[in-house]
Structures are given as structure tokens and as C-alpha cells.
Amino acid sequence: MSAVESRTPEQVRAAAGVGMTLALHASADPDHPALLTPHGDRTFGELNANVNRLVRYLRGQGLQAGDALALVCSNRPEFAEVYYACLRAGLRITPVNWHLTGEEMGYIVDDCEAKAVVAAPQGPKVLVAQSECQLNRQRRIKPQIKARIAAGERVVRERFGVDADTCTGDHSCIRLSGCPSLSIKPNPDPLRTDPVATVLDSCVGCGVCGEVSHAAVLCPSFYKARIVTNPTAWDRVAERMRNAVIGWFQKRDAKARARFAF
């Protein structure tokens, strides 16, 4: 009796639920052919070992259960290896037709929110995203934030802005980051004609524009604001205290300027 046949139906279903059915076959007869293809053969033992290696690699790259993976592969043994690795690791797999154009593939990869892309023309090659696309992130968290606000929870969002009085009009921030939320507006200073940078309401608070500018020692005009929805009593008290302190300094500065005014 084989190792698979010796197990109860409940044990087999439990193994299938965590992607371990292949391991049962590998333990029963590791040298039995599992795949016979023009691109290479695999025994159950070889297939299971390759799946384990791929699972360890994906987990080592930070992928967790529930994350998405896109697979671009023809009818090759690697397709089965990646498929079983995703079952075992709890990943969501989206097969992408390898006949599509690059633009079409990119649309599918973006739409399925893949954190890794596997292409297997001659052995699997894995591309793992090191950071989450802000567009995908907003798609994911906006419904969550909306639900929390509707439930009356305290929600803190970050927004970035540009101090028009400090902005030099160099616009290096726009050239370097390429953020669609960065634009320009007329300079509020009548003695300066160059337009200043501004952050539109579409800003999602990723911070890339400010980080790039500060890292390049280009611009000190970026600031970060925290928007609190459903503030607590302490938030309201702290806000009044901040306004009082800032207002005192502003009035003192205005008086000093008035003494030297023509």
C-alpha cells in the first residue's frame, strides 16, 4: 500500500488544503515520473524538492500568505513548480498568457496587485517588488479607511505640502520624483515671477517627493502635515495649545515687522 493510500480521506483533504498533496506522492514514490514534457521531465521527488526551494526563496524575499504572484510561462515543468509553490505558500497566483504584449502583461500584473512576477523561459526567474505601488496601496487601504471613519475611529492621514515662501522655484522636486501630485502655481510674492511648486489634493502621503529633495540637498520647503479624522478630546486640547503658541509667536513677529515698516 502506498503512502497516499494508507492515509485517511480527512488526512488527504487536510494536505490538499495546505498544498502538500504533492509531498504525499513524493514520499510514496519519489522516483515515479510526475511530468514528461519536451522541456524536461520531473519525478515526484524532484518536483517536490523544487517546490520547497521556491517556497523558501519567496518567503525569504518577504512574500506572505495572501500576497499575489503573477506567472508568465508556457507549458513547461516550471509552471507546475510555481503553481504548487503558491499553493504551499498560500499565495494568490495569476497566470499571464506569454503571447501577450508587454503592455498587456503589465496591465494584468498591476490589476492583480502582484508583489512578485515569475517568468520561466529557461528556468524560473523571480522579480520581487521591493515596495508597494502607491496606486495599488490606495486601492487596498481606501475602503479600510472609509470604513474606520464611518465607525467613528480616530484616523490619521499624512499629507505633504510646499512652503511657498521658502520655495525657490527650482522645481527639482518635480524633475526628480515625477509625482503626478506635484505641480506649480503662481508665486505669492509679487517681487518674484517664477512659479512655485505645490502639492495637489491627490497626494497620498507616500513622501517620495520630500525624501528625494532632501536626499539631494535641494529643497527645504517641503513639510508634512497630519490630518486627524474623528479626533479625541486630547487631540482637540493639543490643537488649541499649538494654535495658542504659534499665534503668540506670529503676533510677536508681526509687531517686530511693524516697527521697521516704512
Give an account of the 3D structure.
Helices cover 44% and strands 20% of the residues. It has 262 residues and is of the alpha/beta class. The protein has two domains: 9-128, 3-Layer(aba) Sandwich (Rossmann fold); 158-230, Alpha-Beta Plaits (2-Layer Sandwich), CATH 3.30.70. The strands form four sheets. A four-stranded mixed sheet has the order 4-3-5-6, with helices on both faces.
- Share of residues in helices: 40-55%
Question: What is the N-to-C order of secondary-structure elements (H for helix, E for strand)?
Answer: HHEEHEHEHEEHEHEEHEH
* Form type: elongated
State the low-pLDDT regions, or none.
none
Task: Give a brief description.
The chain is of the alpha/beta class and 262 residues long. The chain has helices at 9-17, 21-28, 44-60, 77-89, 102-111, 134-150, 172-177, 208-215, 233-259, and strands spanning 33-37, 40-43, 68-72, 92-96, 114-119, 125-128, 155-162, 182-185, 196-199, 222-229. It folds into two domains: 9-128, Rossmann fold; 158-230, Alpha-Beta Plaits (2-Layer Sandwich), CATH 3.30.70.
List keywords for this structure.
262 residues, alpha/beta, Rossmann fold, Alpha-Beta Plaits, four-stranded mixed beta sheet, two-stranded antiparallel sheet, 9 helices, 10 strands
Helix and strand arrangement:
Elements (H helix, E strand, L loop, with lengths): L8 H9 L3 H8 L4 E5 L2 E4 H17 L7 E5 L4 H13 L2 E5 L5 H10 L2 E6 L5 E4 L5 H17 L4 E8 L9 H6 L4 E4 L10 E4 L8 H8 L6 E8 L3 H27 L3
Parallel strand pairs: 3-4, 3-5
Antiparallel strand pairs: 1-2, 5-6, 7-10, 8-9
Helix pairs in contact: 2-3, 3-4
